[in-house]
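To close the chapter, one final illustration. This time we ask the reader to focus less on the individual chains and more on the assembly as a whole: which components sit near each other, and how the overall shape emerges from the parts.
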Amino acid sequence: MSVAKIELFYVAHSRTGDKGDSQTMSLIPYRAEDYALVERQVTADAVRKHFGKLVRGNVTRYELPNLGAFNFVLEETLQGGVNDSLNLDTHGKTRSAVLLAMLMEVPDDHPAFKTKAALSSPLP
Amino acid sequence: MKTRKAGAIRIGGGSGFSNDRADAALELVERGDIDVLMLETLAERTLALLQVAKRKGGSGYWDSLAGRFEVLLPAMAKHGTKFVTNAGGAAPEACARMIARLARERGITMKVAAVIGDDVTELVRASDPVLVETREPVSKLGTDIICTNAYLGADAIAAAYAAGADVIVTGRVTDSALALGPIMATLGWQADDKDAMACGVLAGHLLECGGQATGGYFAEPGLKDVPDVDRIGFPIAEIRDDRSITITKPPGSGGRIDRHTITEQILYEMHDPAAYLTPDIALDVTGLDLAESGENEVRLTGARGHKRPDTLKVLIGVDSGVLAEIEISYAGLNCEARARLAADIIARRAARDPMLGNQTIQYDLIGVSSAWPGETGHNVRDVRLRVAARVPDQAAADRLITEVESLYVNGPAGGGGVRIASRPTIRTYTTFVPREKVTPRWAFVEA
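The assembled structure is written out below.
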C-alpha cells in the first residue's frame, strides 16, 4: 500500500458561517476513523496556506473529538465583512467549497477513491 | 406549566429568515405535535431596513408576514400551539397589535404580548461607548445613526410566557432566546443554573435556522444526499427536564437528521466551541454527547454553561451608500478574453470619471452554460462579467450603470443580457453596554 492524493471533499464535509469579517467553517469527516488523518493534515497552518491571500488574519482550529468534528475560524477574510464587501457572495457562504478543494494524502486503498470514481460531473 | 409531554417541552423552528418557506412552519403546527412555534425573522441588517421604512411612515415590521400569520394563527389556535417570534423588528408593540387584530378578526382568543427594551438609542447616545470596528466612540462616526439595538436575552420572554402569553413578539433578541424563554418558563429553569441555560441555548441554536438542522443547506449530490429535499421538514426540539434535547421533524416530511446534519448546525457561526457567547450563557459544546437515537432522530446531552457576559452586544446601523451591481454575458470561443476586455474598458473609463475615479470597483467572471440553455453537450461556455461598487449616492451608481450598459454598443463583440441592480445599503457597527443599564420589559397588548 502506498500513499495517494485526494481532495478533502471526498473525506469530509463543511458548512461556512460568518461573523463580521471572520468566517467559521466546520469540518466533519464522513467516517469517524478518518478523524486522526484529518487532524494531522488539515492544520490551521495548512488551511491558511490553502486560502492564501483570501485570509489576512489568524486561522484558529478547534478540535471536537466528542463530535468527530473540527471548527475553523478564519479572520479578516471577507473584505471587511458584509458591510464593505463587493463580492457576489458577501457572506462568503460558498467558501466551504474552497476549503474542501484542499488536497490531502491518504492510503491509496482509501474508500474516498471509490466515491470519487462514482461521481461524474454532469457538465463537460 | 402544562405541555404535551410531562417534564418536556416541544418547540418547532419555523423559519431561518424572514422570507423562509411558509409550508414548513404550517407543517410543524399541524403535524409536529409542538407546544411552541418559534419564528426567527430578523437578520443583522433587517432591523435597520425596517427602521428606515418606519421613518418614512412604514409599520416598522415586515408587513408581508401578516399573510403568513393569517394562515398560522387558526392552525395554532386549533392545535393549542404557542408562538414566539422576533418579527416585531423596529415596532414590536405594533406588530403584536397587528397579530392580536388578525386573531380577533378570525374569532380566535389569544393573549398577545410584546417584549421591548432592545432599543438602546438613548443609552448609547449618553454613554458614547467605543465601537469594535473603529476603536473610537460612537459620536466620532459623524453619520446619521439609523438604529441602535441591544441583543436581549430570554428573561422577558420567559416572564411573558409564564404569565400565560399565547403569542410573544419581540424586536432584537438573541435568536436562541426565542426558545430559551419558553423552556425556562415551562421547566422552571432559573437563569443561574448554568448547564440548564446552556441546554436551552443549544436547543434554540439548533432551531433558529429552520431547515438547516434537518438536511437543508447540506445536500451534495452523490455524496451527501438528502431524501425528499424539495419538502424538508423543519426541526422539532424536545427539551426534557433531564437536560437532554431530542431533535426530530414532522412525520413523513423530507430531510435528514443524523450526526452529520446536526453537527454542521451545532458548529454553524460558532467561534470558540467552549464559549459560544449569548446574553444568557456562554455555551460550551466540547463535552456534548451526540447519539443517533432513532431514524431521523438525534439526542444531545452534556451541554455545559459558563458565566454569561457582563455586557450586552449592541448593533448600530448607519447609512452606507448605494450598492450598484451590473452584469453582462459573453459566450463561445474566446468569451473570457472579451469579458476581460469589457472589464478593462469600464476600468479605464471609470478612472477618467470624476464621480467614479475614487471608487473601488470589483470585476467578477461568472459562468457555465447559460448561452445554450438546456444543452450541455455543446462546448459553448459563457462568461458573465459582474461589475460591483458601493458608491456614495444614486447619481454615482447611475453613472456606473451607464458605463456598463454602454458595453452593448461600445464594448467587445457579442455582449448580452445586461441586468442592473442598485439599492441603498446599511452598515452595522458593534459595541457593548453594561447589562444592568438595559431593561427588557414585556406587556400584553390589545388589538
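The radius of gyration of chain B is 25 Å. Chain B has two domains: 8-117+152-309, 316-427. With these observations in hand, you are ready for the problems at the end of the chapter.
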